[in-house]
Amino acid sequence: MVLTNNITIMRNDSQSVILGRLSLANGKGYYRKGSYSTEIIWADRKFVFPSNKKKGSFKDLWIFRNVMNDVKEYCVGRRIKELPKLPVNYWNPKIDKAKGRIAATDLNHAYWRIAFINGYISPKTYEKGLLIKDKALRLASLANLSSAKQYFLIEGGKVTKKSITLRFEAYLQKVYNNIRYECYQHMMTMANLLGDDFICYKTDCIYYKQTKKNVELVTTYLDSVGIDYKQLVETDRPEREHVLDVIKKGPSGTNQNDPFKNLGTN
Amino acid sequence: MPQKSNRPKVLKGIRLYNYLLRQLGEKNKKKASVQQLSVASKRKIVSSVLYPKFKDSTKVSIREVNGTINAIIGKLPPIEICNPLLLPQQYLTAVEYYDIDNHIKNFLPDCLDIRVNAGVIGKTKIFNTRNYNYYTNGVQDLVEEIRDYLALEQSGIAYFYGVVKVKPKAANNGNPINYFVDYILYINDTPQDIIKPADYALNKREIKKQENITGYFATRFKTLQKEKKRKARIAKKAKEKKPSEIKMNEKIKKALDSLREVYQSGALTKAQYEALRDELRKRKK
After folding, report:
1. Hey, is B162 helix, strand or coil?
2. Which of A11, A16, A42 faces B90 most closely, judged by CB atoms?
3. Quick check: pTM over 0.95?
4. Does B207 touch chain A if contact means CB atoms closer than 8 Å?
5. A-B interface: how many C-beta pairs under 8 angstroms?
6. C-alpha–C-alpha distance, residues B95 and B118, integer Å
7. H-type alpha helices, chain B
8. Interface residue B219 vs chain A (CB under 8 A)
């Protein structure tokens, strides 16, 4: 199966027409349903039907192609070396229970920024990508580099259970992994800098004991590597009257078990 | 009495052009296994390739002309591209109604019988793409009628889907002459005419031929897509701004110039200047 740039974007409702045409032509095709779109591959022509549920994202689907093209362009003549694996979430093994105030620093669009800093994506893609409201779409466009796609065979106009899996080149997977591991590497470096004051990190957010020195250490480090962030600080304990008020009215959709529920954004 | 020169006459201008055209036609006719070019295609090849090559030569040898023409003939696609039964169906699918002219002209080979069919809105006669003309074949009228119809229905989604059919009163025997491609209009995914494709099963040999010509259509389709994208980009760039926007921008430009002068005179601090400048830039459309 050869995949070329012959992509036709159609209304979601038109799927049945294309399947009908496939059936009439007695042709074979491939079908894949994703959260953003459904795809039908008929020989070397691809039909894309953006999802009705995520209509708002339809105009931003360009990002998938741009990221893919940028990364492929970056990789021409380069040997991509995979970074060492690191965990997504990591807790300080020495800490049983954190006492005192907790500070947290959350990286802004971490993967996207790292992809840009490393030159995997062009400045134009980076800037245009930041304007996309749906953050998940940006992440999906990066994750798309490493994803294997399962297509179901269409025979006689009907989608069968037989499937094939399409994988992109291994170097694309390496690029995506490197973006992730570089993010965790930054987290681990900050953890080492913080020493015993480090509590944990979760993907792109690091938690540590709140002291002026620690906050400065983390922010200085992030400034030096060119990553944007937002500083989260634990708010003061609520007044007794406020607590009673909340008990009367009931919790307003907050997770009662979340240890960081009191953290507010600066 | 002047003596007759023994030197052969060198063809120039229109005589050279006609000679090349005739030679190309003859050579094309001799090789029956390749696509038979229409007059328009032959003229296009002569105008763009052959004539520019030989027009400035002081000596045109027949061997050189033949060699060039043979090379061109050799690159022509096989005659099978003119068989509607062998056309790759995926490329006859989902042609925007306003793009049908472009599709016929630039994608379909100029040796195919087709019909543009919008059901109750109207349909053209079966015509050969060799003699295709947007205006005289009735395609323009039909497209305009579809446009009006869609405006009344308040729906802009209409595609043509090509279906290979047997010509009226013709036998369904696999002879390419007996078939044509009917481009049926679908409005909101509903066909406007009956879809009754030719019920003819290709044999192994024909399937192999079909596979051989798919690449040719894929290339044409890709070129067409690229051209469409290029046109869209140009149209986007050329999209004129409203006169009010232009006027507004001119005013802001003047204001920015004055602000720069004031800043240079020292009346404003850098921060003040930058704040005012950014404020003005925001208003620019």
Report:
1. strand
2. A42
3. no
4. no
5. 48
6. 13
7. 13-30, 39-45, 51-54, 62-74, 100-106, 139-153, 204-238, 243-265, 270-283
8. no
Q: What is the pLDDT of residues B62-73, one digit of tens each?
A: 888 888 888 888
The type of residue at B275 is A
ipTM above 0.95 for this complex: no
* Alpha-carbon gap, residue A52 to A221, rounded angstroms: 43
% of chain B exceeding 70 in pLDDT: 92
According to the model, what pLDDT value does residue A111 have? 94
Convert the pLDDT of each residue in A158-200 to its tens digit.
Answer: 888 998 887 778 889 899 999 999 999 999 999 999 988 899 9
pLDDT at B1: 55
| Neighbouring C-alpha atoms within 13 Å toward the C-beta of A37 | 26
CA distance B285 to chain A (A): 18
CB contact under 8 A, B222 and A18: no
User: What pLDDT does B29 receive?
Assistant: 87
A62 touches chain B (CB under 8 A): no
Task: Check: CB of residue A210 under 8 Å from CB of residue A103.
Answer: yes
User: What one-letter code names the amino acid at A199?
Assistant: I
Task: Please state, in angstroms and rounded to a whole number, the distance separating the CA atoms of residues B97 and B106.
Answer: 15
CA-only gyration radius of chain B, Å: 29
pLDDT in tens, B15-69: 889 988 998 889 888 888 888 888 888 898 999 988 988 888 777 778 888 888 8
Where are chain A's structural domains? 7-265
- Residue B223, chain A, CB below 8 Å: the answer is no
Portion 146-185 of B in contact with A at CB < 8 A: 157, 159, 161, 163
Query: Are A222 and A234 contacting, i.e. CB atoms less than 8 angstroms apart?
Result: no
